[in-house]
From TrEMBL:
This is Putative pterin-4-alpha-carbinolamine dehydratase. Keywords: Lyase. Its EC number is 4.2.1.96. One of its GO terms (biological process) is tetrahydrobiopterin biosynthetic process. It is an enzyme of class 4 (lyase). It catalyses: (4aS,6R)-4a-hydroxy-L-erythro-5,6,7,8-tetrahydrobiopterin = (6R)-L-erythro-6,7-dihydrobiopterin + H2O.
């Protein structure tokens, strides 16, 4: 079981994450990819990273716009699992921005 982050911990984590917003219930980020295929490649890479971490985001795809939402449902809010996956999503999104 992962411990819920406090409001201060979530705020601190968000200040270190690129483009993420949220609160203790969930964090999210929207990424605009250069093309629809690039958006799908990003989603596939995030899916693989999420599977490796055994922690899965909610993903919404609208053409080139992809929104990722993270919350540890079993705990009822944001945990370190969410901020770790957010960092990984940032890395992957950064790599796709140059496509």
């Amino acid at each position: 079981m992962a411990a819920l982050l406090s409001p201060d911990e979530v705020s601190s984590a968000l200040s270190e994450l690129d483009g993420w917003t949220g609160d203790t219930t969930a964090i999210s980020r929207t990424v605009t990819a250069p093309s629809f295929p690039a958006a799908i490649r990003l989603v596939v890479e995030v899916a693989e990273a999420a599977e490796d971490a055994d922690h899965h985001p909610d993903i919404d795809i609208r053409w080139r716009t992809v929104t990722f939402a993270l919350s540890t449902h079993s705990e009822g809010g944001v945990t370190a699992k969410d901020t770790a996956l957010a960092r990984r999503i940032d890395e992957l999104a950064s790599a796709h921005s140059a496509e």
